[in-house]
Fold these 3 entries.
Entry 1:
Amino acid sequence: MKFRRSERLVDMTNFLLDHPGQLISLTFFSDKYSSAKSSISEDLTIIKETFEQRGIGTLQTIPGAAGGVKYIVDIKEEEARQFIEELCSVMSSPDRLLPGGYLYMNDILGRPQMVNKIGRIIAASYANKKVDVIMTMATKGIPLAYSVANHLNVPVVIVRRDNKVTEGPTVSINYVSGSSKRIQTMVLSKRSLATGSNVLIVDDFMKAGGTLKGMVSLLEEFDATVSGIAVLVESENTEERLVDDYLSLLKLADIDEKDRKIHVTFGNYFSS
């Protein structure tokens, strides 16, 4: 089937967006559209320029016989800043305040468009790093983890607090919760993570960072490398932070339960 150029550009763009980080040869596109490689190269140049102008991402060209192009996700700083400002406003609503100073976040984590944008912002920060797997802790971090994984085109592994018979043999460790100082257990299936993997840890909320530090320790059992740690919200009022190198989009600066006021500001995303 012969494609008109306009059809080819639309179809190529859609294919690239559906396969982020995947090396695609010019031969593949040439055969797919029954077009000369020179025409495909011109089309890719147009797509690359449009992606970069719109802040969608870029196309990375790999030369040589085994080369091709990769779509790398990105986001303009202005777009990210505007969205994070919106999140700060949404998170500051007094209606989110729960007994004990906790915040209700399930509505945010249940909105596909919002979670997709959060995932894109995080993914763009690690798009040029080696990431083989996204790791998160069950359960609230799961939507964010899958969103980031979708933008980086990598699998997700989920750490749990108890064994599941359906996961087969597992590796478990004990860790100290940063906030409660209690000893807890986390478990990961042996089959879920290959030895030596490069892992990006993603979670929804960080207080002292005990759970995140526990996941880092768990990764040591797999001889894995931590590519980074990213959270949606970090708590500012913490005496001792158990992890140092991390990315946060929002910071919970203060909660006044008496007056029902929540102060949420930018995390370290623009300063990290």
Entry 2:
Amino acid sequence: MKYALNKVLMNAMTNLHGLSLDFDALDNAYRTSTLTPVDVVREVYRRIHDRGEDFVWTCLVPETQALAAAQALATRDPAQMPLYGLPFAVKDNIHVVGLKTTAGCPAYGHYPAKTAAVVKKLLDAGAILIGKNTMDQFATGLVGIRSEGYPVNSFDGEYIPGGSSSGSAVAVATGLVSFSLGSDTGGSGRIPAALNNIVGLKPTPGIISTAGMVYANRSFDCVPIFALTCLDAKQVFDVAVGPDIDDPFMRANPNYVAKSEIPVSGFTIGIPDKDNRKFFGDLLAEKSFDHAINLIKDLGGDVLEIDFSPFVAAGSMLFSGPILAERLASLGDFFESHREDIHPVVGGIIDKAKSYSAVDLVKEYYRLRQLMSAAYTELQKVDALMVPTAGTIYKIKEVESNPIALNANMGYYSYFANLLQLSALAVPAAFRDDGLPFGICFLAGPQEDSALITLGNRFQKASRLPLGATRINYGAH
């Protein structure tokens, strides 16, 4: 009897070590009583401990505290908690009471008085917070290496992880949490998703509360969701979306759905015209995007080239004009009083804001409205736009030697989305011939998030790729 019991326990431990943390796997384990949330939390901390210092985390919830939260779920009805027992993490510019917020700058570190509204929603829905993740300092960068210590790419340590939500993406890709929150101003919820083979759902600005975070551009910052699958991201999205009286930048009706679905067949996907389609000399990325185009056709879609120039022009405003003033305003006096504590590349970017006037900023917003009109005209021709999430990927050494230009290349297909108030979804698309992941991003008008998730789910299933940096394929369990 004792031998049989030990064998059962040994089998359970073996299964636990190989367990995927995607929602279906955990839901099945909980429903069949194979595992409890306490078991999963213990396994999460074991994995974190075994990885050693990987610079994914800036701080962890004490394991005893996370276990207590998991134990408390034992008396709750899982059917009433849509995120029951799911471990998650948040980027270190999102406030959580009891955990220091540094935004990637230790000198800025402080303990907030209030937990961010979106985090509270997730906790109330049964999710279990594990800790806070490393990021590019003050969310200024798409490379993921603008902090004192930074994680590396989940597939090859010589390559950048993508930023600024680097730790949040790597935590999901490497199986440390089921999902995570980042922040997205110019691509920080999409670029690291693509570079680590996971999903990055960037919501329409103003439908998920940003109250309780350190802002880059408060007027269009948003909280993206990293997950292993599109449907996992949708489950978190459904909990997170909704009004918040403490966020003055919320949309009047954040629960409004602009488009319920994209047709299963006979749909049209826009792609950038050839003159504006750039891969920065990366033939493997170009080949992977061609593969994604063919996959759309296999799914029953038509592909139409559209004029991508208004999107590019809008994106160029993010770091090359007076809109930088928002970043300077967010940091306030700290920027001047702690200049020596700010990453030199980050400081140099924000410094440029001082060269513009209020009149320059007004004129820039007038021009943005014109570009928005032109971009929306192009979007009306298609059901959704598909672009490479990133046109290439760089080694860490390459970015260190040319940080500004290469960061701009990373943002070519992402900078414009929030400025134009678009919904966006980054989805894994292929593995390049060099073994690195490649992702695409679907974009559509405001509050078409649900339609993009439906399309992205079909695309992800058809691509048949493993989940994150694991060997588990989508739908394998």
Entry 3:
Amino acid sequence: MPAYKELYEQLRTSILTGQLAAGAQLPPSRTLATEAGTSRNTVLAAFEQLRAEGYITGRQGSGTFVAQILPEQLLSAEKPSRRSRRGGSTAKLSARGERLAMVRRVPIPSVLGHEPRGTSFLIGLPALDAFPFDTWAKLYAERFRRSAPQLMRYDDVAGYRPLREAIASSIGTARGIRCTADQVVVTTGSQQALEFCARILLDPGDAAWLEDPGYLGARAALVSAGARIVPVPVDRDGLDVAAGIALEPHARLAAVTPSHQFPLGHTMTLDRRLALIAWAKRHDSWILEDDYDAEFRYRGRPQAALMAIDPHHRVVYAGTFSKVLFPGLRLGYLITPPDLVDGFLAAHLSTDMHAHLIDQAVVADFIERGHLVRHLRRMRVLHQERQHELLRQADRLAGTLDLSPSDGGLHLVGRLAEGRDDRAVAKRALRHGVHVWPLSTHYLGPRQETALLMGYAGTTAEDMRQGFAVLERVLR
């Protein structure tokens, strides 16, 4: 067909399918001609045809725009179906892609397709309202003045060296892990760290233990690697190692959250930790230790990390700054046995080279100047106060929604009366602007407990009051 007709058809299709929305401005004819590799007369002829049929309008001195109302006889043109966008006959996913698409998403509002509004008990959020914004801004400004050109270049794929040194130093004090900066790999958040571990340590079809109930992000990483997930039950002592051995003794990897099990909040006992390490040694398997919020413990001293008591170098440790600083930072890290470092660096090179250098440099300054230690000290006090407030206000729902205190973490588990559907409760509460998360979504096996996960660290007392008023109406 003539060149102008081809361009006309492309623009018409874009308008009818909604790719060019009503009122959208089209590029100037000269610009479009250059981008399309055609003459301006061709573009003008296509525009003239679209204008004559009522698809576009021109405004003197303003430009050319998609018409607000399209010709009635053409309104039957269909938009792409939801099925075709998600993998219908025109966009078929791989078998692994289909499995990954079916994994439930982490409870982040934007991932779930909505934004938080009003009162919210979002889990995984620290007290962002108490973050030292002024200190952070000063460190950023100082970094830009002092070393911006150097931080705009490529850098070590393992991460900014001063940050890795700061992590290696602080992790020894806080978690008892003895390591060097060369064992630290900085990632863009803990999810990338989990992905790296699954990709480097597993082949498709390998068995991997996963806590049941467990972290959805770890489940997604294992599915992405093509692993065969073995759900292992969790009790008050943490992962039931004996049950895991009975189910699949030769699993290649065990993904665990021993310091503060997610989502139940239990701490793995020393006996279970030693049994897990012995199993990994005996079967030449790996342990992925996700230590996501070990910094927030309110009673007693935390147990040493699994990696700190593993003499066989079978543990890979994953940490994150999302909870100790803020989630939008998107910085996490891995501490690996020396023999695995090259493999993790190769995984990093195959994705995004390294995390943002300016952010890494500011976090390094924040740690080295003592701001992180002071910030964590304040946050522990504030988070514990907010946990007490959540428990106090929850008394009004005793017998319907029962919460128990926790020695650490950022959320509590509110158990519902027998017969309640936690997913239905969460869905209805969300309609009223209250974000609670159903525990049942974290189970893989048949044993499921219905409860609500309720974040308290990032929720003020007034928001809690309003939230419980809504939950009381929903549950009633």
